[in-house]
């Protein structure tokens, strides 16, 4: 029994593309300050699930609840106001802008809810403050004025986490944050995520099993759009079905 509040929940969430059911009646609960990893082979429906959770795709069926409020069908731009921030499987920053400018742009997305009543000068300071704080949290303060596109791939992905943080989320939805990284870059990213984990709900789609096992409390395995298994990470890891279907040991 876990006393932490449920911040995000899916009930029978389903997404079809024509005849293909990419996400099939998925029911999951994500708790406050919990890291929940979702694994599964390519085509399992992980990215589609992320796109549903962040309203980048409309579901074909089922519901999404945020702190017990039904948010099914809300537009994507409302998700930031609900505290749901996401990164993408491919890099999504503005390469000709500096790290600070990228974080500033992301910080502006908090405007509608939390800064509407600020006067322009105060609002400007607030945005800058959030951008600086996000740079600090993602470990890039020393790169503040570097043009993003001139940094290493690993630093660019770090900056993307910073941009998510700048938007003021409670829930971080991260689609393969280690994709394409070398060992050293992966280790830096895992350390960054471990530092964030006590403060945020993290929904982590990731192929790197070492990273998953070192970060996740809860592990969900998806195959062909459905949940094969979900539960505490050690329990799921030990499951025969999971080993046969996915882990291959
Ligand atoms: P994963 O992220 O687990 O690799 P995806 O969610 O990307 O899986 O894809 C799940 C299935 O849905 C795949 O068969 C994929 O081809 C299909 N799919 C994903 N997005 C679309 C789309 N926009 N249109 C049609 N089919 C899609
Ligand atoms: Mg994917």
Automatic annotation (TrEMBL):
Protein name: Amino acid/amide ABC transporter ATP-binding protein 1, HAAT family
Family matches, as PANTHER family: ABC TRANSPORTER ATP-BINDING PROTEIN, CONSERVED COMPONENT OF ABC TRANSPORTER FOR NATURAL AMINO ACIDS-RELATED
GO cellular component: plasma membrane
SUPFAM superfamilies: P-loop containing nucleoside triphosphate hydrolases (SSF52540)
Residues covered by the ABC transporter domain: 8-249
Family annotation (SMART domains): AAA
CDD domains hit by this protein: ABC_Mj1267_LivG_branched (cd03219)
Molecular function terms from GO: ATP binding; ATP hydrolysis activity
ATP-binding is among the record's keywords: yes
Key words, A-Z: ATP-binding, Nucleotide-binding, Transport
């Amino acid at each position: 029994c876990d006393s932490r509040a449920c911040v995000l929940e899916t009930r029978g969430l389903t997404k079809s593309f024509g005849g293909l059911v990419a996400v099939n009646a998925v029911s999951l609960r994500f708790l406050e300050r919990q890291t929940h990893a979702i694994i599964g082979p390519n085509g399992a429906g992980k990215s589609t699930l992320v796109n549903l959770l962040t309203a980048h795709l409309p579901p074909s069926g089922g519901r999404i609840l945020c702190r017990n409020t039904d948010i099914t069908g809300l537009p994507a731009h409302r998700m930031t106001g609900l505290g749901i921030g996401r990164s993408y499987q491919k890099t999504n920053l503005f390469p000709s802008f500096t790290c600070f400018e990228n974080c500033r742009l992301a910080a502006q997305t908090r405007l509608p809810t939390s800064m509407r009543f600020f006067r322009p000068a105060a609002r400007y300071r607030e945005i800058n403050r959030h951008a600086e704080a996000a740079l600090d949290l993602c470990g890039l303060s020393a790169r503040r004025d570097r043009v993003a596109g001139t940094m290493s791939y690993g630093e660019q992905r770090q900056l993307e986490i910073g941009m998510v943080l700048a938007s003021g989320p409670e829930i971080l939805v991260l689609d393969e944050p280690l994709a394409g990284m070398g060992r050293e870059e992966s280790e830096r990213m895992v350390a960054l995520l471990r530092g964030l984990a006590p403060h945020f709900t993290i929904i982590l789609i990731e192929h790197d099993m070492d990273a998953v096992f070192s970060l996740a409390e809860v592990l969900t395995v998806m195959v062909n759009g459905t949940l094969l298994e979900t539960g505490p990470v050690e329990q799921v890891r030990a499951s025969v079905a999971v080993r046969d279907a996915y882990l291959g040991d």
